[in-house]
Amino acid sequence: MPREYTYGPFNSRRLGVSLGVDILPKYKLCSYNCVYCEIGPTYQVVSPEHRIKAPPSSNFRKELKDILKYVPHLDSITFGYHGEPSLNESLLDFYKVAYDVRNELKWTGTPPLLTLFTNSSTLYIDEIRDRVKHFDLVLAKLDAATDEDLNKTNRPHNDCPDINRIVKSLVKLRNDMPDKKLAIQSLISNSYNKNYYSNNNPKNIRHLAELITKIKPDMVQVYSIARIPSEYFVYAIDENRKREIVKILRELINNDNIEINYY
Ligand code: SF4
Asked: How far is the CA of 141 from the centre of ligand 1 (A)?
C-alpha cells in the first residue's frame, strides 16, 4: 500500500533517526515563502488564519503501526514537511493517533519524541498554541530578529505577525509547555545578490540574541542551507561562520540553561 502520511525514517543531524509525518495536502501550504525553502517557492502564500480541515484517515494509524514495529530505535516522529502543519485544523487529531500508537508499542530504549516543526507565524493564535504545546519537542523558526530581515528572508503573508508579536507568542508558548522542550531554529544564509542584504548581518544576529534571551527556549539550533534553495541568489554560510554565530549568541545570551549549537 503506498504511504499516505509518512516518509523515511531517515537520519537527521538534529533529531537522530526520524520518521517524517506530513499532514498537509500534497502541495505546499505555507504562510511564508522563505528565500531558502528547500521544497521550492510558495506559489500561493496563505494567511496564518487560513485553515484546512483534513483529519487523519484510518490509514494514518495503520501506516504508523506498520513502520514503527520495524524501527525499535526511532528517535523522533516528526511533523512537518510540505509547509506549516498548524494550518491543518486537525493537527491535534494526528498528534493523538501518533501518541497512542507510540505508547502501545514496546521500545528497547527511550520512546521516540513527538516533534513538531513550525514557522512560528500562527503561534499568536491561542487555539494553535493549545494544540502545539502537547508535542514533546517544538522546533520553532526564528531566522530574523528585525522586521526588515523577516520580510526579506521569510517573505510572510501580509496578515502574518511582526517580529514583536512573534516573540510574544513564543514567550507564551514557552510558558504553556513547561515540561516539554522548545527549540528555536535559526537558518542563516548568505547572498550573491548585492541588492539583497541577507540575515547573516551583525544587527540581525545581535537582536536574535536579545529575543532568545526573552523567549528562554531549551535549545537554539543555528544551521544553514543544505539543499537546493528556492532562490538562486542565496547560499549557505560555512562552518566557521556558524561557529562564530554560536559563540556570539552564547556570549550575549549568557544563560547556561539554553543549549546553543550549530548543525
Ligand atoms: S516556513 Fe518552511 S515550508 Fe514555509 S516557506 Fe519557509 S522553509 Fe518553506
From this structure: 9
Whichever domain contains 63, its CATH number is: 3.20.20.70
- Residue with CA at minimum distance from ligand 1 atom 8: 37
Q: How many helices (H) and strands (E) does the chain have?
A: 7, 10
With respect to residue 216, please indicate whether it lies within any of the assigned structural domains.
yes
Q: Say if residues 102 and 139 touch (Cβ distance below 8 Å).
A: no
pLDDT tens, 216-240? 999 999 999 999 999 999 999 999 9
pLDDT (tens digit per residue) in 66-95: 999 888 889 999 999 889 999 999 999 999
pLDDT in tens, 94-125: 999 999 999 998 887 899 999 999 999 999 99
* Total domain count, the chain: 1
CA distance 186 to 34: 12
- In the reported structure, the alpha carbon of residue 120 is separated from the centroid of ligand 1 by a whole-number distance in angstroms of 11
Ligand 1 pocket, Cβ-based, cut-off 6 angstroms: 30, 32-34, 37, 39, 42, 83-84, 119
Domain, as residue range, for 28: 6-262
CA angle 215, 220, 223 (to 5 degrees): 135
Q: 238 in a domain, yes or no?
A: yes
pLDDT of residue 59: 94
155 contacts 33 by C-beta, under 8 angstroms: yes
Question: pTM here?
Answer: 0.97
Distance 106 CA to ligand 1 centre (A): 34
Q: How much is the pLDDT for 78?
A: 98
Q: Is 171 contained in some domain?
A: yes
Measured from the Cα of 154, ligand 1's closest atom is 6
Q: Could you tell me if residue 1 is inside a domain? A: no
C-alpha grid cell, residue 160: 502574518
